[in-house]
């Protein structure tokens, strides 16, 4: 949500982790923070890539089951050794990516100047071929971009945006030329560029990529692939091709991860208290604030029919609907029940606290689709303590609201676009209601996971994290005895 000069913003509008030194666990021996992610599918389908000589077509490739880990650490600023720890800047220290299809691994180590000191691909360190390789984390990105530049080029703006295929092809040429001993270096260079353009990482793909090339080049590649005794040379060549794949993969993974994280909506625990009247504003509100303060203006931005649909949805769950009343430059929110209308202030405090939550749940699935450039796709809705100030029966109904959204399939949207919910709660009623809904077949037990955070009895500074779940009958599995009860001394 905020552009930063470091990978992580420790303090912002919604979070306050202090500084890096206070965020790292006291028990950490490495003084590092690691983030791990797994993506089911990352597609590399660039229309072209750059070399110094022009554009080359790039084939579409899909990498399945990509997992990666980002490790960040303190980056001390030079010549300021007296700078206090809370002023330290954080930077990427290590980056690991693994692809399942095709199977290949990448691991980078980065120094305090964001220079890559090690680039290991399937166990081969190829950094000696790219002495000027460094990283750049642009504003709005999560993963870094590889920069293939020399010291002479660092001052040239366009060079810092150039892809590295030309540099990689030269490294491949230096590796292959002594083996082949050909006279026409330019022809070999073109053939290497063609192979690089295919982004081939398996023996079958490499054979196919060179099948239409010159006989000498094809015979050389075929012999290299078939010669098990010379497998080291093949692995080195594959590793250099892998550098080009890594450059594309970083960009695509970053794009996909940003799309996922940008699609997170959040409702906090402390929501704004309702008022009897709100000053009318000509605002177009497309999202509800984490504290729900702009909920009246959000309702005012909806069309008459959208308000009616939201009201009907809430009525089906809680037995009352909502409406907007506009009078003399002010608006108010009314509750409708059994033909009676009452201002929201004249009802229980819990209603004012749950309405922004219900509105966010409904809007995340019901808002009309817009082009990606104008509106992000919601992927996850995070709700913190939605049960606050709610009657236990209404806490159970809140579980019904969540499950109802998981079950529903909006028109024209594929099943894999369902919203995921992360709900932080202390409500025993809500947890038990989920088990009841599972037992009644309203939701699959595999769609619910419970993560428990408990203070470790051995140390007050350690939190134990364990997972629990429901079985097919809706019964809790691996649930700690007495979790909802005070400890007996």
Description:
The chain has 489 residues and is an alpha+beta fold. Helix content is 31%, strand content 25%. The protein has helices spanning 20-23, 165-180, 185-198, 203-210, 215-226, 231-262, 295-301, 304-318, 349-366, 392-407, 428-439; strands spanning 33-44, 48-51, 54-57, 61-75, 89-99, 104-110, 116-121, 124-125, 133-136, 145-148, 264-267, 278-279, 321-327, 330-337, 340-343, 380-384, 420-424, 450-455, 463-470, 476-477. It has a six-stranded antiparallel β-sheet with strand order 1-4-5-6-7-8, covered by helices on one side. Strands 12, 13, 14 and 15 form a four-stranded antiparallel β-sheet that branches. β14 and β15 (340-343) form a beta hairpin. It is elongated and about 95 Å long.
Can I get a quick summary?
This protein is an alpha+beta fold and 489 residues long. The chain is built from 11 helices and 20 strands.
Strand order of the largest sheet: 1-4-5-6-7-8
**Largest sheet descriptor:** 6 strands, antiparallel
- Helix proportion: 25-40%
- Unreliable stretches (pLDDT < 50, length at least 5) are 46-65, 73-87, 157-162, 370-375, 408-417
Strand portion: 15-25%
Count of extended strands: 20
Task: Quickly count the helices.
Answer: 11
Distance between the termini: 46 Å
Structural class: alpha+beta
Rounded mean pLDDT is: 77
Shape: elongated
User: What's the alpha carbon Rg, rounded to whole Å?
Assistant: 28 Å
Can you lay out the helices and strands and say which pair or pack?
Blueprint (H helix, E strand, L loop, with lengths): L19 H4 L9 E12 L3 E4 L2 E4 L3 E15 L13 E11 L4 E7 L5 E6 L2 E2 L7 E4 L8 E4 L16 H16 L4 H14 L4 H8 L4 H12 L4 H32 L1 E4 L10 E2 L15 H7 L2 H15 L2 E7 L2 E8 L2 E4 L5 H18 L13 E5 L7 H16 L12 E5 L3 H12 L10 E6 L7 E8 L5 E2 L12
Parallel strand pairs: 11-16, 16-17
Antiparallel strand pairs: 1-4, 2-3, 4-5, 5-6, 6-7, 7-8, 9-10, 12-14, 13-14, 14-15, 18-19, 19-20
